[in-house]
Amino acid sequence: MSKIVVYLIRHAEAEGNFIRRFHGITDSNVTEKGKLQAQKLAERLKNVHFDVIYSSPLKRAFYTASKIAEGRNINIIVREDLIEINGGDWEDRCWDELPLLYPVEYEIWEKMPHKHCMPNGESMYELYVRAKSAFEDIVKSNIGKTICIVTHGTLIRALLTYIKGCEFEKLNEIFWQDNTAINIIEYKDGKYHLVVEGDWSHLGNELSTIAYQDWWQQFLKERGIEKQDLTIIERRESYE
Q1: Catalytic residue among 23, 84, 105, 152, which?
Q2: Is position 11 annotated as part of the catalytic site?
């Protein structure tokens, strides 16, 4: 079977990321910093040939995909199944409110996210099943091609458990990724190989969304990491 290369990318910074409100299916606009992030991402990927670009329908993902598509004779295919998790009652709530309003659910979100279910929304496992199905369908429809998928942070985190061959119960070991972070996956002979994971080095600290946010520093501290880690699993000249 011919090799397939997938660039799995998180959207640029949107209002919910900046003001720290839970925006799953809430369709917030890209911020000014987000526009700069998307431009940096597009510049980094300018020499990568994409046969097709897929996007979530939400504005923050479609804007990011549109910047990647600029100057290319290529259409963006919007798929509803690439949308972010449906946060139900959490939608558009301040993150600081959530542990006060939903202490049990928030504890599960933080410590055992694979068991989490959004109140009147989507469970993490439902998101995982949806993301896995969408990803498999896209990959198997594009044999021998290089494709780009622009989607969302929670969906990417859940999907990476599948791509890395982890049990879904290991979800909490998958790191959150910054806006416009790049993952590169190869698929050949029925197997996935994660070549690059969560690389946002094109942003630098000045354009990072999460580098200086308290929740991110706490997330790293809990995992014994003292500072932001831009580790790339493997870098190949052909991808740059």
Answers
A1: 84
A2: yes
The model's pLDDT over 56-105, given as tens digits with 9 standing for 90+, comes to 999 999 999 999 999 999 999 999 999 999 999 999 999 999 999 999 99
Full residue range of the structural domain in which residue 173 is found? 4-213+225-239
From 42-46, 92-96, 187-191, 210-214, the region with the lowest mean pLDDT: 210-214
Rounded to the nearest 5 degrees, what angle is found at the Cα of 232, between the Cα atoms of 128 and 51?
65
Joined together, the tokens standing for residue 145 give 């091609």
What sections of 82-192 are H helices per DSSP?
A: 98-101, 103-111, 124-140, 153-163
Structure tokens belonging to residue 140 = 């198997």
Residue 13, annotated ligand binder? yes
Judge whether 54 lies within some domain.
yes
Is the pTM value of this prediction over 0.90?
A: yes
- Residue 80 a catalytic site member: no
Q: Based on the structure, what is the number of domains in the chain?
A: 1
In a domain, 135, yes or no: yes
CATH number at residue 11: 3.40.50.1240
- For residue 219, being part of any structural domain is answered with no
Determine, yes or no, domain membership for 218.
no
